């Protein structure tokens, strides 16, 4: 199976609050889908690498989200914590086509 076979239409871009997120619930771990000020969309596992805080409840700024528990800043494009913190939240591929957001569960 290739990534082209795994794309799932999850919502429209406008369904995600600007500078916010939408939560995709699943048994193996929830996914937070974020929208930045310039309508770029990212998806991360909804667990901060520090203490598993819900990233979906964090503050989106630029291309980062700040965890609501201990203010770790996580890069939305990679899931990497920004220095001096170290750790990584799992990143999921997303694409936007004709206003629809597609998520790849690879």
Automatic annotation (TrEMBL):
<dbReference type="GO" id="GO:0042128">
    <property type="term" value="P:nitrate assimilation"/>
</dbReference>
<dbReference type="GO" id="GO:0051537">
    <property type="term" value="F:2 iron, 2 sulfur cluster binding"/>
</dbReference>
<keyword id="KW-0479">Metal-binding</keyword>
<protein>
    <submittedName>
        <fullName>Nitrite reductase small subunit NirD</fullName>
    </submittedName>
</protein>
<dbReference type="InterPro" id="IPR036922">
    <property type="entry name" value="Rieske_2Fe-2S_sf"/>
</dbReference>
<dbReference type="InterPro" id="IPR017941">
    <property type="entry name" value="Rieske_2Fe-2S"/>
</dbReference>
<feature type="domain" description="Rieske">
    <location>
        <begin position="8"/>
        <end position="103"/>
    </location>
</feature>
<dbReference type="GO" id="GO:0008942">
    <property type="term" value="F:nitrite reductase [NAD(P)H] activity"/>
</dbReference>
<keyword id="KW-0560">Oxidoreductase</keyword>
<keyword id="KW-0534">Nitrate assimilation</keyword>
<dbReference type="Pfam" id="PF00355">
    <property type="entry name" value="Rieske"/>
</dbReference>
<dbReference type="InterPro" id="IPR012748">
    <property type="entry name" value="Rieske-like_NirD"/>
</dbReference>
<keyword id="KW-0411">Iron-sulfur</keyword>
<keyword id="KW-0408">Iron</keyword>
<keyword id="KW-0001">2Fe-2S</keyword>
<dbReference type="GO" id="GO:0046872">
    <property type="term" value="F:metal ion binding"/>
</dbReference>
